[in-house]
Request: fold
Amino acid sequence: MVDDLSRSLSMFSKKISLSLILLFIGTHIGITQQAVKAQTPTPATTTSFCSAQLEASINTVINRPLFSRARWGILIKNLASTQTLYSHDAQKYFTPASNAKLLTTAAALKQLGANFRIRTSIYQDGDGILRVVGRGDPSLKNAQLTVLAKQLRQQGITQINELIADDSYFQGDMIPPSWQWEDVQASYGAPINSLILNENAAVLTAIPQSIGQPLQLKWADPTEAYQWRVVNNSVTTQKDEPGAVRVSRDLKGPVLYIQGQLAVNSQPDITAIAVFDPIQNFLRHFRQSLATESITVKQTSISTNKNEREIAAIESPPLSQLLIDTNLNSNNLFAEALLRSLANNQPLAKNQTTVDVGLKVLQDTLTQLGVDSASYKLVDGSGLSRKNLVSPEALVQVLQAMAASPEAKVFRASLPVAGVSGTLTERFRNTPAEGIVQAKTGTLMGAIALSGYINPSQYEPLAFSIIVNQSEQPASAIRQAIDDVVVLLTQLRRC
Reply:
């Protein structure tokens, strides 16, 4: 998502997940993860105050003149007693950005269980005919394809007459129709299907050349060069000149447009883009893995069929780990895959999609947890859609319900820790909030959010949700104000 860890690897604001970066470490260029710019640290202080002073203190922050046009939604509750300490438009709808992932991951954990795994299978449909069936494992990488290929080789398979890709487990659009076109070009808006590989993304690096020359383009996977037609209008400029690279994709075909400039002495620019055809992407990489094991493939195809005899399989990490991948670094693809997994291959009614069923299961699960179904309206699982509507009340209800559930420890472990991990690594450092706040971040154009838990040293544990919509201020200024409120909460004391 244009979100959270906001890896601003170019003007296009591409977001590359940590796991995707690690996938390509060791290629021709060392790739490092770029974290979101640190918010201006609030100096550590020993100041504390009573809860009776909280309302005035928070109002001072949110009523600053620069926020005169912004909508704030805030709810802060004592986690144990559910006493409301502060509320501001808490029942109203807001665009939640990635805070929607709290609802998705909570429902997935309650419905599927911490040990749930997603299985990818290979079936033998006939003599020399193998069919690989995906079930939406978002963690599948090239290394797992190698494991599958080795399993086949160990069974004496050296030739496949026909390799069939069965991508039918998820039904419906690969790209949610309410996602914006700018988002679906980038890796954070990659398509969601049943045979996901390498997060359905490809990594491209632009490298300065001689002054006046176009930037050199290198793919982390060299075979990607044959999948795209690239229109390169970039240029290498004089030493120390400012630079930025914009990479855009034609939505009608595999065409990339490269624009912008980099100084001759600048670092390479790294961009992750969504693959154009995820099924063909999977087949191409799997054929490479099979070839490495000396298994030839005569032809490939895409179809569905009934399951015959399973001859090879791999499984994803347990859901407890997938939740960490989803929330810690705000991975949209993981969240969308989990939403669809909630459907659990249930029969679809006419004109119904896997997302429709997943959203119904999500709502039923959250209702059982005590979350008011009227307090939110979701159309996706990640929060990338601007059509999602969630109130701070709904988010706090989810946080309270999960804190009281047997899965509390697993759920909380998936959240970033202030100043320590995930999308909060560079926030709250050297403040009283460092290490005692666990919260989910969220960022879209015009929407900034933070919801989670606080364990003040002199007060009871808290659940909170803060959402800011419709502000013309920079995201950094809004985040700083949100952080100021959170730091206030860490300084509460019993009076």
Q: What stands out?
A: The chain has a mean pLDDT of 91. The chain has two domains: 1-25+118-316, 35-114+320-493. The chain has twelve helices and 20 strands.
